[in-house]
Amino acid sequence: RAKTEGKGTYRFFEADMGAQIRERRSLEHDLRSAIANGEFNLVYQPQAQVDTGAVNGFEVLLRWIHPARGSVPPALFIPIAEESGLILKIGEWVMREACREAATWMRPLTVGVNVSAVQLTSDGFADLVRRILDETGLPPQRLEIEITETALIRDPNRALQTLQKLKSLGISIAMDDFGTGYSSLSNLRAFPCDKIKIDRSFIQAVHTNPQAATIVRAVLGLGRGLGLPVIAEGVETSEELSFLDMEGCTEAQGYLFGRPAPIEEFVPLLSENVVVLPTSPARTMAK
Ligand code: C2E
Ligand code: MG
Ligand code: MG
Ligand code: MG
Fold this sequence. Notes:
287 residues; alpha/beta; eight-stranded mixed barrel; disordered C terminus; binds ligand C2E; binds magnesium ion
């Protein structure tokens, strides 16, 4: 350590790193008891038909209400749960709760559950899911597992084996956040996949960034060519929805249709025969 300024900067950086590490340890510590303390809950976000607004299913998103910190974002605690291995127990809890809930619905809507790489490549994951389906009575056709491409490259052989088992049970697989991370088109061919979810970063830029619009069109073309349905994530405006409709995207999810919320808020959607979500007035007028 040479200069005075350099040393100061270094110390500041060091203190900052220390605080980050302590913060992480503290969150990991608290995560260990979060299930037992009932600090987790699930919220549900509708997935709808672009042209009619009819609901096809819901994605399940985990929420953690920390007793002192309040709501902790998944982007902060999921990586800690993954690195510490706690995601195995937490993910099992999510899967069981989600299947239990979906089994009570009066319509055969799908339920999408996010599964991390650690879970997918853990021992007996497919058996665990099969047991949960048996236990809850949810038909496998109604469960959709969302995985990211990053999950596949961790241990491709193992991931492939597990995905094949899940598929043979009748469960479907959606490729989440498509187009980001360790994306490779060959993943769609090498791994059994039933649906592509276009990442919300592309959707949110379709009207400001021509490259994003080109990528969305390309992914839709890929889906058409491979015979894979494509769902757009993070649709917030009627302009984005019109663009998707025009480009032939048939399914969407995002704040425009509904924010993730406790399932109680969606009760009417769970029982009616034909239910249409509110899209925007501009869209209704254009049709
Ligand atoms: P994801 O699976 O890609 O989930 C979509 C995220 O986008 C959710 O964030 C959702 O609240 C948000 N979102 C949906 N529509 C919109 C929109 O119109 N605008 C904007 N700005 N955001 C929108 P959330 O709930 O914070 O979850 C973040 C990530 O955490 C998820 O990304 C998923 O990777 C992970 N995650 C959440 N729950 C679980 C879980 O139970 N298990 C695992 N392994 N990961 C989970
Ligand atoms: Mg997801
Ligand atoms: Mg996603
Ligand atoms: Mg994401």
